[in-house]
Amino acid sequence: MMNKLLFSLIFCGACFVAGAQQKPNVIVILADDLGYGDVSSYGATKLHTPNIDRLAQSGLRFTNAHTTSATCTPSRYALLTGQYPWRKAGTDILPGDAALIIPTNITTLPKLFQRAGYATAIVGKWHLGLGNSVTKNWNEEIKPGPNEVGFDYSFIFPATADRVPTVFLQDRHVVALDTADPIQVDYQQPVGSDPTGKEQPELLKMKSSPNHGHNNTIVNGIGRIGYMKGGHTARWTDEEMPFTFLSKAKTFLEAHKSKPFFLYYALTEPHVPRMPGTMFKGKSGLGFRGDAILQLDWAVGELLKEVEALGLAKNTLIIFSSDNGPVLDDGYVDGAVTQLNGHRPAGPLRGGKYSAFEAGTRVPFLISWPQAIRPGVSSALVSQVDLLTSFSRLLNQSLPAGEAPDSEDLLGVFLGKTQKGRTLLIEHAGDAKNGSDTATALNTAFPPLTKSACILSLVRGDWKYIYPSDRPASNQLTGTETGSAPVPQLYNLKQDIGEKENVAAQYPEIVQEMEALLKKEVAGK
């Protein structure tokens, strides 16, 4: 009887018996701009992703899982802090020289694991700022950053692959920096004498689309956003990036195989610039974007092999997801549009990256833990913002009052014990221009979003309400529908997952109720 009780406690994640390690190792794999329909376990037929599918087959596949936001910086902020990003000014898509936006004195996801005795690491994309100000010396120790918010080890690039500086940082220092060739970065005006895509387009091996800003300093034959001088020996080659990140991740696993570890493996695929390794170029038949997804799937498979080789597979909890929805033309001419070949990156959903429609935030979300989770499918409403509070219960670590205010305890859902997910979820698209604070706007002038760059939506049960906004209906750079409209929008997602019919006029009482709920939720924390 006692053995059964102990097993039950372990299985439910409420606590762990003493003695041999019972705490699961945890790996969060986060893709970049991967859509709901980009994975074969979510319906893709033109692409086959067997390694990601292995996670779906061995664990839970969530069909109603969301990021908080339709773009990368804010959704990553929410994942690590348990807070909706629109509550905090300055959480828009960051330039490569931005200051750190995560406070160093709060509980973050990695800090939670540290307190529970875990070794923690981030390998891959960061994009949450570094240092205390925009002005920083890239040739010296750079902090605060990932190490100060809870990662014992970090191997990152600062922002996105299409932004300078195009270098790796390992634990506060640029990798392979030559002190005789110091780095300088500027997002306002040119620095140094390196060629730019605007002035010397003949040097580009990947052409850029007009008006996206990918015509500044050329690195590895690709124009970037922003200007960079120096650091030539430290600059990465795009084709080597996935292999470098994989090597660093595997090294971390090997070094910590005998104690619990938390690894945040933040890959860059299929974000632009899509320049996959030679072994993947042309493999998908869908242009470089499709090739990058196959490369992503391969990297996932290699990491799974490493976990298995170390004998850790049964007691390693692996989460796979994406930071936001898909985008095709995001600044480079890479075949993503012309070679789409019938592939549907968003699957049955409407919109994509930058959009308030479902494809902006509804993403693949898989959880595998062979020792404790039975394979299956969950339709529960969940969000990445819920990981912090859910893991706090799994690890038996309390959260200080007021921290992770928007994160809910969905441990039972994540372990497949219940289908009862969130009651409400606020989805966010667009930026808060000039550091405007959406929460303040909602509290002081309702309706506020008609004059805001931010679009908020509220999901409750089968209903989704999008608040009126005066933003353009289409993103001028990518062609993606923003989801903005000057009138309220209401969709029944159970009957109309593609958000084709706005039924607000038919259900004015539901619109009024959802509007009131949105205001209450935004003002309440």
Topology:
Layout: H1 2-12, E1 25-31, H2 50-58, E2 60-62, E3 65-66, H3 72-81, H4 109-115, E4 119-125, E5 153-157, E6 169-170, E7 173-174, E8 184-186, E9 218-219, E10 222-223, E11 227-229, H5 241-255, E12 261-266, H6 287-309, E13 316-322, E14 365-368, E15 376-378, E16 382-383, H7 387-394, H8 411-414, E17 424-430, H9 438-444, E18 454-460, E19 463-466, E20 489-492, H10 508-523
Parallel strand pairs: 1-12, 1-13, 2-15, 3-16, 4-5, 4-12
Antiparallel strand pairs: 2-14, 5-6, 6-7, 8-11, 9-10, 13-14, 17-18, 18-19, 19-20
Helix pairs in contact: 5-6
What's the short version?
The protein has helices spanning 2-12, 50-58, 72-81, 109-115, 241-255, 287-309, 387-394, 411-414, 438-444, 508-523, and strands at 25-31, 60-62, 65-66, 119-125, 153-157, 169-170, 173-174, 184-186, 218-219, 222-223, 227-229, 261-266, 316-322, 365-368, 376-378, 382-383, 424-430, 454-460, 463-466, 489-492. With 525 residues, it is of the alpha/beta class.
Strand order of the largest sheet: 7-6-5-4-12-1-13-14-2-15
Helical content class: 10-25%
Shape: globular
Question: How do the SSEs run, as a string of H and E?
Answer: HEHEEHHEEEEEEEEHEHEEEEHHEHEEEH
Q: Mean pLDDT across all residues, rounded?
A: 92
Total DSSP helices: 10
What can you tell me about this protein's structure?
The chain is α/β, with parallel strands linked by helices. It has 10 helices and 20 strands. The chain has a 10-stranded mixed β-sheet with strand order 7-6-5-4-12-1-13-14-2-15, sandwiched between helices. A hairpin with a 2-residue loop joins strand 18 (454-460) and strand 19. Helix 5 (241-255) packs parallel to helix 6.
